Structure formats: C-alpha cells, structure tokens
Amino acid sequence: MKYSYKARTKEGELQIGNVEAMDRNSAANVLLSHGLYVLSVEEHREEEWYDRLLNFFKRVKTTHLMIFTRQFATLLASQVALSDSLGNLYKQTEHPILKEAIAEISNDVQAGFALSQALEKHTNVFSDFYINMVRSAEVTGRLSEVLEFLADYLEDQVAMQSKIKNALSYPIFVIILAFVVLGIIITFVFPQILPIFEDSNITVPWYTAIMLAVGTFLNRWWWIVVFALVALVLILINYFQTKEGKIVFDETVLHIPLVGKLFRKIYVARFAESARVLIKGGLTIPQAVEISARTIGNVEYQEVLTQASEEVRKGKLLSKVIEERPEFPPLVSQLIAIGESTGRLEDLLQKVRDFYMREIENTIENSISLIQPILMVFVGVVVAFLFAGILLPLFSLTQTI
Predict the structure, then answer these.
(1) Coil, strand, or helix at residue 400?
(2) Using an 8 Å Cβ cutoff, are 353 and 156 in contact?
C-alpha cells in the first residue's frame, strides 16, 4: 500500500512524500531506517474528481497573497517578532482559505518549525518559488527584504493579469451577450413564428428549418440544455485539473493564433523575473532555473527549464542551453550570455524581463485596438444570420399574399 508521510531530516528540514509498505508501522520503520524523524504517516488517498473541483474553487487569488506578503514584510521590517507578525496577519486577513493557512503556519512556527517548513504544508497557497525564496532568506537573514521582493513580484503578476483580463473582458462580454440574445430569440420567438409558416404551406430554406427546429427543441427542453452545459463546464474544469488535462490545455494555449505568442512572451518574462529574484536571494543558477520551471505556469516550459537546469548542473552555460531551445527567442540567450561574461546575470535578466513586459503591453494594446472592428463584424454576421433565416422567408410570404 502507499502511505503519505511528513518527516524531518537530521538537519531539521521538512520532507513530504509517499512510501510503499505493507502497513502503517512498516512505513514508519522504512522512514526511520533512512534517518528521518516521522511526524505523520497516513494512508495515501488518490485525489478524486470532487477534490479537484473543490481545489479549483478554493484557490487564493494572487491579489490576496500579494497583500499578505506586503503586510508581512512591513511587520518584520518594523522589528515585530515572527510569531507576533503572523498573529497580526491572522487578525487582519479576511480570506477564509488564507486565514486558515496563516493560523496553521503560526502554530507550526511556535512549535519550532522554520517558516519555510511551515509554508511547505500549504502548497495550494504558496508556490515552490515563494517557499524557496523564504528558505534562502532564512539562510542569509534577509527575510524582510526577500518578502519585499516577493511582494513586488506578486504585484507585477497582478498588474499583468489585470491587463490581460481587461483586454479580454469586453469582447467576452459582448460575445456572451450576443449568444444570450440569439438563444432567447431562437428559444422563445421562433416557436411563435412556426405556425405562420405551417399554415401558409410554403417551403422555407434549409437554414430556416434548422433554426425553427432548434427553437422548438429549446423551448421544450431548455432545462436539459442548461443542465448539460453546467455538467460540461464542471467536466472540463475537472479534466483540466488533471495532469493530462493541464498538458492538453497548456499546449493548446501556445498554439492559438495571437494568444499563443502573447503567452510565450509572458512565460519568458516570468522566467526571467523568477530566476533573477532567486539568484539575488542567494540560490545557484541551476537551483534558480529548476524552481522557476515549477512556477512558470506551463507544462511545456516547465519541462524545457527542468532539462536546462540539469544541463547547467553538468557544467553547461545557461545561455548555451537556452539558445538550443526554440521556446526562447534568440534575444534571451544573447542577453544571458552577456550577463554571464560580465558577471551581471541578474541585471541582464532584469533587462529580459523589462523588454518582454513592454512587448506584452504593446501586444495587449494592439489587440484592444483590433477588438472593436472584429466585434462589429461578429455582431453583423449574427444579425445577417437572423435576417436571412426568418425575415427573408417572412418577406417572401408577404409577397405571395
């Protein structure tokens, strides 16, 4: 059987994983034989579909995490003790999931765990990047400074997400509104027109017949359609939470015209920023690349950067490794090469990040300028479709009377 465990090494580091054993006691003995101090051993339960759905709806937004980190950094910079800072943050935080996580972190810190070890228990709230930055700060004694870095980093992420949402919210709203209006007309208006065509015994065009048939079906069974749509959405959410679903989603996003190019720039900027902050926090280049891979948010880029970190560990220059990867534009490897040769890798990674952030902003602004004419064409097509389907046959009917 498989058991999930939490244990501490002789150096005091928290270790979480799975172990195969006949029973719980055997699992504990296996861990003890490896020199680990066992904290808990529980029977491993595979994540069910409802667990994935709950995790999707119980996420902590980047905005809440950014505010928490900023307040945390301010309290520590003001010489407030770590446990007192966590206590104050617990009182100030309103988000229920984050509030519960802070309470458990505070209890673990008071029990003797390091802050990074306490954060490791809440990977649904804190990313690997966040946890490893805190761990590096504990070694260097610059926790408040690193938390300021993290707050700035999260603030940039929030700003980027906000720009993307603002660019997409208006067209999505218009498209949804158009389909809602179209659905109402087909469902409730078309069935009222059907008797006119039936009484006149005229032959309607095939596309009109399809619309009238769909309208009649929706008028009778709309509740089944609504139920099916809700079920489909939940099934898709559950699927995209699985490992296979994440791979399919990430690959699909990268191959959508225009959208794919935008997200590639986002991932490059995110990698440059993550690696820069981690290296500045005292981590080695292979460690920084590996952690950046786990926080970049795309499976394809994660695999590429994980392989890159392994090659850098073997002695290869990061610029040479990046140069061989088509996922990264040539400019990235060129700037990294300059940073490596001059010893200013952090500064050049900052330049990579700044350049692609400007590219992202320009892409979003250009997309916004194209949205209005595209939407006008879309609405025009919908109106033409309705006109051709109903008004033209009605006009033909009036001509025969």
Answers:
(1) helix
(2) no
Residue whose token pair is 């590996």? 290
Choose among 160, 163, 166, 170: nearest CA to 374: 170
Exposure string of 246-256, with b = 16+ CB inside 10 Å and e = fewer, is beebbeeebee
Sorting pLDDT into bands at 50, 70 and 90, what band is 47? low
pLDDT digits (tens, 9 = 90+) for 3-25: 666 676 766 665 666 666 677 67
- Supply 380's token pair: 């025009």
Using one digit for the tens of pLDDT, what is the confidence trace for 226-262? Answer: 899 888 888 887 777 777 878 888 888 888 877 888 8
CB-based contact 389:185 (threshold 8 Å): no
3-class DSSP state of 18: strand
Asked if 164 and 253 touch (Cβ cutoff 8 Å), the reply is no
Q: Is the dihedral of CA 130, 134, 137, 142 positive or negative?
A: positive
How far apart CA 211 and CA 391 sit, in angstroms, is 12
Quote the CA–CA distance of 80 and 236 in Å, as a whole number.
46
Task: Quickly list DSSP for 46-57.
Answer: PPPHHHHHHHHH
Rounded (10°) angle between helices 190-200 and 206-241: 150
pLDDT at 57 over 60: no
d(CA 70, CA 88): 13
pLDDT tens digit sequence for 210-221: 878 888 888 888
Listed in sequence order, the residues at least 6 apart from 363 whose beta carbon sits closer than 8 Å to its beta carbon are 261, 262, 265
Q: Are 158 and 66 in contact, with CB atoms under 8 Å apart?
A: yes
How far from the centroid of its chain's Cα atoms is residue 239's Cα? 15
Residue 325 pLDDT greater than 80, yes or no: yes
Do 110 and 83 touch, CB atoms closer than 8 A? yes
The confidence score (pLDDT) of residue 43 equals 64
